[in-house]
Give the backbone structure.
Amino acid sequence: MKKAMTLFFALVLALGLTACGAGAPNETPAEPTEMNVYVLAGPTGIGALPLWAKADGGEELQNVYHVTMTGANDEIVAAVSGGAADIACVATNMAATLYNKTEGGVKVLAVNTLGVLSVLTNGTDVSTVADLQGKTVYSPGQGANPEYILRYVLQGNGLDPESDVEIRFVGEGSELLGVWQTEPDAVILAPQPVATTLQMQYEGAKTALDMTEEWDKVSGGESTLMMGCVIVRTAFLEEHPAAVEGFLEDYAASIETARNDVEGTAALCQTYGIIPKAALAAKAIPYCGLTYVSGTQMREQLSGYLSVMFDANPKSVGGKLPGDDFYYGA
């Protein structure tokens, strides 16, 4: 009887071990999540380029990324609102506007671009903001970040944007390239890479004011000039939380590569059409404010910046400031 019982238990144990061993090979690893990532041409899209190149090259990443570049803000808005874009690199005030438009349908994951604006002169004497009094300043971005940043800095230095300075707006940054041909004494507020292009084209061109530094002087540390960010559709985040965390790992590494490998990133700028020429991109990238700020630090600094935008014009952020749920991981 003892022998029979011993044989029985041995058989049960053997079958159990066999079952455990047989089950392991049949476990199917989770499939990588596919993501549609949209980027804007210009500085806000530069940080995604190493990630884009790896995705195209079939390198192993946390997810499968399908990247689309566009030069039009409207296309980004439509793609995010319509669900075609899962993640997008956009201007920070556009992110706030989308949050309000979609009633919390997007969240900001990280800030990817700080200030990219400079005041340039071509022989005109400007060394402080006060020197802009009585000058004509050409600027892109009427009703967008550049206008509000300029007004904030002017007012913070005691100048009235309506009477002390004549601001003339152009439709696109590229239109600034011809200003000095007809008005050599004009002052130009230019984003990158237009600022670098102007300095390459005109021997006497120089950076008179760095608007990021001027913003910091006026704000006294209460806000930081944060112009670009990466957002995610809230519905996509709720469905794929681990995949979004994986994206952030890949994206942070991508920005780090873009900052440290300027020549390689400049070549990618030309390849993907973010900036038309690699030589121009190589000179511009160090001034494009590439960064990666997330979590509590992002919320504190970005909320301060958006508050300035809101005070300048509530429409600039979609009519009201975003709620705390706008800031992922904060």
